[in-house]
Amino acid sequence: MESSPVPGDFIKPSEAPAWPPPASSFPRPSGNRAWRQWTPSRSEGDSVGDSVHGRPSVVYRFFTSLGQVYQAWLDKSTPYTAVRWVVTLGLSFIYMIRVYLLPGWYIVTYALGIHHLNLLIAFLSPKVDPSLMEDSDDGPSLPTKQNEFQSSIRRLPEFKSWHVVTKGILVAMVCTFFEAFNVPMFWPILVMYFIMLFCITMKRQIKHMIEYRYIPFTHGKKTYKGKEDTGKTFPS
């Protein structure tokens, strides 16, 4: 029985194993099997996000270009505040006429009203709640320029609120084309509940505005006027 080599022993060249090993030492496939190169079961670029030779697919490029065009039109409409809101009011009027002529879809209208009420509260609320800025140990502090700046920033900006309101109206209008959303409801109850919820929410918001003395409808930058020049000179 041959002993295994001990580390440090010198191995003669004749005793060293041959490399590479002979081909007969590898197992060969039995039967009719043969070695072949693996190929994918589906062609490249079938899905939306796949790419062919490093290039995005046609569907991905189409939606990307569509999103860029949509964002470009939004950027162009940013300075036209009055025109944007007039278009949104026109869409609201068309939606109300459609719901009136096709009696139904009351639950869709109620959900749209609740959605707009939440957006209105976010538009009227400051980005930083003034009640959280007060120190409970030291008591209320005097207003500073930093606090005044933070309270003048809305939680929901004007452009974003317009964008979300317009999308909500369009989604509600699309829902009126499907009978599945026409859930039978007793609409006077929904109207009464919405009016009650609107009054309670606005009352709480107005009390919050009066308590912390902030006005969400500021326009432009504050300007300060100095004393008028009377032309009088003071002797040195």
From TrEMBL:
The chain crosses the membrane at residues 82-101, 107-124, 185-202. It is a multi-pass membrane protein. Keywords: Membrane, Transmembrane, Transmembrane helix. Coiled coil: none annotated. The keyword Membrane applies. One of its GO terms (cellular component) is endoplasmic reticulum. One of its GO terms (biological process) is retrograde vesicle-mediated transport, Golgi to endoplasmic reticulum. Its main location: membrane. Residues 1-51 are annotated as: Disordered. It is found in: Membrane. Involved in the retrieval of endoplasmic reticulum membrane proteins from the early Golgi compartment. Belongs to the RER1 family. This is Protein RER1. It comes from Eschrichtius robustus (California gray whale). The lineage of its organism: Eukaryota, Metazoa, Chordata, Craniata, Vertebrata.
